[in-house]
Design brief:
By secondary structure, this protein is α+β, with helices and mostly antiparallel strands. Helix content is 38%, strand content 20%. It has helices spanning 30-42, 48-57, 59-62, 75-84, 87-101, 155-165, 182-190, 204-218, 295-304, 307-319, 332-349, 357-366, 368-375, and strands at residues 109-117, 130-137, 142-148, 172-175, 194-199, 228-236, 239-248, 265-275, 278-288. α2 (48-57) crosses α4, α4 (75-84) crosses α11 (332-349) and α6 runs parallel beside α7. The protein is elongated and about 75 Å long. The termini are close together.
């Protein structure tokens, strides 16, 4: 037997959203439209039309825990509502809901990166694809929130807005070179969090000084520099990977720090990869607010940063076909992106199996009991 109403208890977090429709003549409540959309996307729906069809095909069991007194909304209704729905309000509710799932982890790594919704352009109106900055919790494996990049701007302006939404106290925030900005270091520290930010050519002066500094000390094998060192080696899938992590708080060479907030250390990572006898080496530099004795956190932050690419962006593209989605009218693209992340979080938090996300999503599309187990964050075996 399918469990009753608690299956959609997550919708209580979305009740504060203002309904953009006229007060009269509404057949379907906003929370029902949101709930049905999430359920259908978990069941492999990828368009407004497929959401409608999913609801029609599964109306019998969905009506056990979602009020469908007036039937299934049309695809036009889904499209119209989400094109008008305020994405700022939707995102605030999304963040509050995620916090109810998120478990406290000491020095949690929160990675921030951007992704373009490649098929969301509109040639007829001359609009470019939407670009969205997302936050990812590596330990919880949850999408924590998103922020759309303004069409005439870039990630530098979107990242601070996203940071303001998130609970980051005690976390370590990692961002690639685009986010290595003075205002962003202040925003992170104001949130009582630490940061590890990549240095590249957009901060050329700072990067060149870090590179020269480490090059000089490499000549003496770092004997004259107080620093911390960590080394890792991995051999899998025919690849041999060797990484050397260096972190020092001896950073007088970087001063003055005008405008930067709490730079406490600078790091270098030398990464070598051997594939079929061919070896390639890369060297990256970082600024950080981490103090002395933080080499383990530094190495973990650098390594975990790629989780947002591998576990979020890759999953959205390959398993949820985000890059093929043509939804683009008004706010619809960013709201659909948020719906996908809600569905992704539900599937990620179901831990009864160690199978891949793709396998779990396929099972959710075939087995209503499993989809409901994901919705209420319970092991499916506990529902039997």
């Amino acid at each position: 037997m399918l469990p009753p109403a608690p299956a959609v208890s997550f919708l209580k977090y979305f009740l504060p959203i203002s309904d953009p429709r006229r007060k009269c003549g509404k057949l379907h409540k906003l929370e029902k439209i949101i709930g049905l959309s999430v359920i259908a996307i978990m069941g492999r729906a990828e368009t407004w039309s497929e959401i409608e069809q999913y609801g029609e095909y599964h109306q019998g069991w969905i009506s056990n825990f979602l009020d469908l007194e007036n039937g299934i909304p049309s695809h036009d209704t889904f499209g119209r509502v989400f094109s008008m729905l305020d994405p700022k309000e939707f995102q605030e509710c999304f963040v509050n809901w995620v916090e109810s799932l998120r478990k406290h982890v000491s020095s949690e790594i929160v990675s921030i990166d951007g992704k373009t919704l490649r098929r969301s352009f509109d040639k007829a109106n001359g609009t470019l694809p939407f670009h969205i900055v997302s936050a990812w919790s590596n330990e919880n494996e949850l999408s924590l929130g998103q922020q759309q990049v303004d069409k005439k701007s870039n990630e530098i302006t979107a990242i601070p807005r996203l940071l303001k939404l998130l609970a980051l106290k005690g976390c370590i925030v990692t961002i690639d070179a685009m986010g290595c900005q003075k205002d962003i270091t202040k925003e992170i520290r104001d949130k009582k969090a630490d940061y590890v930010l990549t240095l590249k050519s957009n901060q050329r002066n700072l990067r060149d000084r870090a590179e020269s500094f480490f090059n000089e000390h490499q000549k003496t094998d770092f004997k004259d520099l107080k620093h911390e060192f960590y080394e890792s080696k991995n051999n899998s899938h025919g690849r041999e990977e060797h990484r050397k992590y260096y972190l020092t708080t001896n950073i007088n060479f970087l001063k003055p720090f005008d405008g930067w907030t709490d730079i406490k250390s600078v790091g270098m990572v030398v990464a070598s990869r051997a594939v079929k006898g061919v070896t390639s080496t890369s060297i990256r530099y970082f600024i950080s607010s981490l103090k002395q004795g933080s080499i383990s956190d530094f190495s973990r932050a650098v390594r975990c940063h790629w989780g947002i690419e591998n576990k979020l962006h890759w999953t959205l593209d390959v398993c949820m076909r985000e890059d093929l989605c043509r939804v683009r009218k008004n706010y619809a693209a960013q709201n659909f992106a948020a719906l996908r992340k809600i569905a992704l979080n539900f599937i990620k938090t179901e831990k009864s199996t160690n199978k891949s996300f793709r396998s779990k999503k396929f099972r959710a599309s075939c087995q209503p009991e499993y989809l409901i187990a994901c919705l209420i964050n319970k092991n499916i075996n506990d529902l039997k």
